């Protein structure tokens, strides 16, 4: 391409947590269901313009239990991020969607998730009511670490 500049599309990545309602479970959460639910809310809140701006680059990269990573266009990320709190149902199951982090790479989302999970484990150990419960949590963490090496 002579004389023309190539334009690189920039993406952001959103780390979200999908908390199931009292009678629901995230075990059946599929990327397609999450995509549809998010796009419906973007369309309701920002209309056809918002849906069109987000749809082309929105991609559900990871769904793992209660945590998901979404790839979204940087230039219209604000449209999607503002709609996330209003996602109340995914595949007719009641949920609460919580934005944990928005970054420039999947790796940055992974780092944030590890930091948050470590804090949750630390809080669980600190709030354990008996030394036996505390030791049980520590033993479980050590087994997981041994298995992952």
Automatic annotation (TrEMBL):
Gene3D superfamilies reported for this sequence: Ribonuclease P, Pop5 subunit
Keyword rRNA processing: yes
Native organism: Pristionchus mayeri
Pfam families for this protein: RNase_P_Rpp14 (PF01900)
GO molecular function, a single term: ribonuclease P RNA binding
Superkingdom of the organism of origin: Eukaryota
Keywords: Nucleus, rRNA processing, tRNA processing
Family, per entry: Belongs to the eukaryotic/archaeal RNase P protein component 2 family.
Protein's recorded name: Ribonuclease P/MRP protein subunit POP5
């Amino acid at each position: 391409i002579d004389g023309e500049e190539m334009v690189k599309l920039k993406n952001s990545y959103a780390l979200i947590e999908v908390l199931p309602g009292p009678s629901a479970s995230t075990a059946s959460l599929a990327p397609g269901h999450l995509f549809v639910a998010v796009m419906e809310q973007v369309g309701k809140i920002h209309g056809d313009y918002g849906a069109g701006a987000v749809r082309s680059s929105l991609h559900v990269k990871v769904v793992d239990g209660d945590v998901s990573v979404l790839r979204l266009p940087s230039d219209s990320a604000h449209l999607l991020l503002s709609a996330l709190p209003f996602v109340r149902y995914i595949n007719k199951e009641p949920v609460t969607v919580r934005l944990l982090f928005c970054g420039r790479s999947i790796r940055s989302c992974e780092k944030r998730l590890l930091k948050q999970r470590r804090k949750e484990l630390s809080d669980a150990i600190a709030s354990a009511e008996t030394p036996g419960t505390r030791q049980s949590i520590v033993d479980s963490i050590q087994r997981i670490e041994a298995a992952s090496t």
